[in-house]
Design brief:
Length: 342
């Protein structure tokens, strides 16, 4: 039983100590998982920008860009080794306190079970688990195509997820009557299915992103004169479909953007009298990105910093790009490639 499932069961019943131990084990599992992924990223020279932590388990929310199948295997093995070392260390502490019968022994026992379950789970050959990354690296080596390899690994992960879902239903409705076990297994299967599909999309996007320049991805937002009233601008922002931002221009030259965020501090009764120029977000306050860089590089530069950036070429503003615009450009190129393949 994983620490997440133990937490779920402990919250349903048991002593206060059982509840505290189960919750501490669950969050300890997440902390060890985070440490393992971080150590693997350091050894594999990868940059993992964000990692989601949750009681019932999540996967790293960061594009993985291993340079070779070898580096992919090395990163996955490093994470598994880190988990194994953590499990061994905690089990050693459990053995030392075996005869004491103290709360510390029960906590170490719970953590040992959780870490061993986590290690076994991550060793399964389903992307994005570490075993799945090793399987993808093998397919990558054989096909010399990371997108095809990721697709194969994702399909395998979907089969594993389907098996987990069937096991979960059997536990819920079977004679054994283990609804909490079944729910935990079912949730794990659904997470694995979604994460595998996302991993395949990311791998494909990583091959497309470096082939598109920021100039090509530049959107064509609605342009409004700087003297337009805020009331008229809001009508444009909330039109169907709604706009993420409006490009404010003066003599046809972009000077800023207007989003709903810029309306803070203004009174709605005064929108008819306030020009957009007065509340716009000046372009020089946004991060600046050269027009010749690729969409992939722009995503890295914007990650964790801002949701919009000014695109410049030879000290001249070309426009503004947002992170959704970057993804839209990649999606459009992927759709075009799919149509061409047909």
């Amino acid at each position: 039983m994983s620490s997440s499932e133990r937490a779920w069961g402990a919250l349903r019943g048991g002593t206060v100590r059982d509840k505290l131990e189960a919750l501490m084990a669950a969050y300890g599992e997440r902390a060890v998982e985070f440490t393992a992924w971080g150590w693997a990223a350091t050894l594999d020279a990868e940059t993992r920008r964000t990692v989601e932590l949750a009681l019932f388990g999540t996967f790293p929310e960061a594009p993985e860009a291993a340079n070779t199948p070898r580096s992919e295997v090395f990163g996955a093995l490093a994470a598994l080794i880190a988990l194994g070392v953590a499990a061994g260390t905690v089990s050693g502490g459990m053995a030392l306190t075996r005869d004491s019968g103290s709360p510390a022994h029960h906590l170490l026992k719970t953590l040992t079970i959780a870490l061993l379950a986590l290690t076994a789970m991550n060793a399964m050959p389903g992307l994005p688990l570490d075993g799945g990354r090793i399987f993808r690296a093998w397919m990558w080596y054989l096909t010399d195509d990371i997108v095809a390899a990721t697709r194969l690994a994702a399909l395998y992960a979907h089969a594993v997820a389907a098996a987990l879902a069937i096991v979960g239903l059997a536990l819920i409705f079977g004679k054994a009557g283990e609804p909490y076990w079944g729910l935990g297994v079912g949730v794990a299967g659904r997470q694995l299915f979604d994460a595998a599909h996302k991993g395949w999309r990311q791998a494909r996007w990583q091959t497309i992103g470096p082939a598109i320049t920021l100039r090509e991805a530049l959107p064509r937002p609605i342009r409004i004169p700087a003297e337009t009233s805020v009331a008229d601008a809001v009508d444009r922002l909330l039109a169907d479909p709604p706009e993420l931002f409006l490009l404010v221009v003066d003599d046809n030259a972009p000077i800023g953007i207007l989003r709903l965020n810029e309306l803070r501090g203004t009174r709605r009764t005064e929108w008819d009298q306030i020009p957009v120029r007065a509340i716009r977000k000046p372009l020089h306050d946004l991060p600046h990105l050269p027009a010749e860089i690729t969409v992939a590089e722009a995503q890295v530069r914007l990650a964790g910093r801002a949701d919009a950036a000014a695109v410049v070429e030879q000290q001249r503003y070309l426009g503004v790009v947002t992170r959704p615009d970057l993804m839209a450009a990649i999606e459009a190129r992927a759709t075009f490639q799919d149509q061409g393949a047909r």
